[in-house]
Amino acid sequence: MKSSHIALVTGGSRGLGKDMALNLAKKGLDVILTYNNEKEAALQVSEAIEALGQKAAVIQLNVGEAKSFDSFFLNLKNTLTETFQAAHINFLINNAGIGLESHFEKTSEEDFDTLMNIHFKGAFFLTQKALPFLADGGGIVNISTGLSRFAFPGYAAYASMKGAIEVLTKYQAKELGERRIRVNVVAPGAIETDFRGGAIRDNAAANKAVASMTALGRVGLPEDIGGVVAFLCTDEARWINAQRIEISGGMML
């Protein structure tokens, strides 16, 4: 019996990451998901993956603390051996992140560093340290934002970090091509999750405003995103490389 491919999803306990993890399982992949604080939520996602017939595991990770990565990969190595009887993962999805809204003129150095450590430095060095664990012929999916294409006041620092991720994606695709590792970036538009305290989900006026500027007439849902990420981790997507795929329903066209 052919063993399943394994995907590692950072920030997989809730929101978009949860939907990605479940859709990966539906595609027949085993899933390792990380959580920062919400272990119980992560375990519930793990149970849902196992209910779909796939193997799952959870590992604690703070992507904003690069010094903790060596310890994380030691845990990953042990998890791969004990739970999956494997030495490698096949796909890495750099999803973990936070929302922090602040106008350019009021953005503090502390907030800037927090966003950089999580969204750019963390993803940069986590992926670098993951390379020995990533199988040849696998893939990486980085998560960006529609805000790298269109501008809304309050997201100068956040969107800049995501813009950096989009440039990094091209370099990763170029440099990892010799290992047949393809690297793509997915850029969600505004989505109804608890991101930024549910700012879009729970604010009727904001929800209506976003829907009015979206060609398909509504705000995005987590289930609009996960299936696309999962598709990029299948053989059907084997020739998609170094691409930015925006999933926004046609927002701000």
Shape: globular
Task: Please report which band the strand proportion falls in: under 5%, 5-15%, 15-25%, 25-35%, 35-45% or over 45%.
Answer: 15-25%
Structurally, the number of domains stands at 1
The total of helices stands at 7
Head-to-tail CA distance between termini: 47 Å
- Helix share of residues? 25-40%
Structural class: alpha/beta
Low-confidence stretches: none
Tell me the Rg in angstroms.
17 Å
Q: Taking all residues together, what is the mean pLDDT? A: 95
Order of helices and strands: EHEHEHEHEHEHHE
CATH class: Alpha Beta
What order do the helices and strands come in, and which of them pair?
Elements: E1 6-9, H1 15-26, E2 30-35, H2 39-51, E3 56-60, H3 69-84, E4 89-94, H4 109-130, E5 134-143, H5 156-176, E6 182-188, H6 204-212, H7 226-231, E7 244-247
Parallel strand pairs: 1-2, 1-4, 2-3, 4-5, 5-6, 6-7
